[in-house]
Amino acid sequence: MSDSEEHHFESKADAGASKTYPQQAGTIRKNGFIVIKGRPCKVVEVSTSKTGKHGHAKCHFVAIDIFNGKKLEDIVPSSHNCDVPHVNRTEYQLIDISEDGFVSLLTSDGNTKDDLRLPTDETLLGQIKEGFDSGKDLVVTVQSAMGEEQICALKDVGPK
Questions:
Q1: Cα 132 from Cα 119, distance rounded (Å)
Q2: CA distance 143 to 156
């Protein structure tokens, strides 16, 4: 009986429920995160206009998509709520790079994670391939938000 109750509870949950949380637009600052046009973004500029004749001060956000680097803008009344993505950064040890561009990573609990592609950023991609080919022990930082994951940083922890 309890299994079906759990299943029933899961089906009621909103699909994007745990991916974002609401935050008042006026409290979001530079270097914070915001969802614009359904994409998780890092805020690079915030400007707030004065209260207009319709009674709301407006926040103008300029932000960069954290996965593809595209610049997005949005204007929201400062008293309204915006979606803010839950952004997590996790470090994994790099084990292998496959021929088709996927990486094999070692998790902290000893399992492997094989569902991530190499980053599209040419500089980072070059550093990863160069370090791996020269036999260095590499730790990659994986940034995840709203169901997407991408390698965003690299640390060299010395030779194997």
A1: 14
A2: 18
Cα separation, 160 vs 154, whole angstroms: 16
Whole-number Å distance between alpha carbons of 131 and 49: 48
Distances (CA, A) of 105 to 8, 52, 71, 90, 120: 35, 52, 30, 11, 17
Start-end of H helices in the chain: 2-12, 122-133
CA-CA distance, 62 to 72, in Å (whole number)?
A: 6
* Ordered structural domains, the chain, with CATH: 14-85 (2.30.30.30), 88-159 (2.40.50.140)
Residue 118 CA to residue 142 CA, distance in Å, equals 11
Among 144, 153, 89, residue whose Cα is nearest residue 115: 144
pLDDT in tens, the chain (160 residues): 444 444 444 433 445 456 899 999 999 999 999 999 999 999 999 999 888 677 788 999 999 999 999 999 999 998 899 999 999 999 999 999 888 888 999 988 889 989 898 888 888 988 988 988 888 889 999 999 999 999 998 988 766 5
Start-to-end Cα distance in the chain: 52
The whole-model pTM stands at: 0.77
